[in-house]
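In this supplementary section we document a worked example of the pipeline. Step one takes a protein sequence of length 109 as its only input; no multiple sequence alignment statistics are reported here. Step two produces a three-dimensional model, which step three serialises into structure tokens for compact storage. The input and output of this example are shown verbatim.
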Amino acid sequence: MDEQKPGAFWMASELLFSKAEQGDYGQNTGREIADQIGVDYNQALGCSQNQDRVNTDVNFGSTLGVQGTPAVGVRFGNNPPSFITYQGRTYNQGGVPFDVLSKVVNSVQ
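The serialised model returned by step three reads:
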């Protein structure tokens, strides 16, 4: 996408997360976002289907139990990545509030 329009990936990423948070995510979401940011949908879709990184990340997430995005995991030292657990709550779906993420990160520094 960035080949078509510099910065388009991050624009699309923000719009996708926003739509997902609002529950406004459907079969035509990709096309709508492409139109909104001014990139060719078919070219962007073709590019994403040929990327090994996408498949690698999806497979890795599946092995960790990720069922959707966003998903946040942490890795401490050589331990395997895991979901964040803070004050008895495990953040295994959706985003992690910044204050929780910062407390977890700061606890290991």
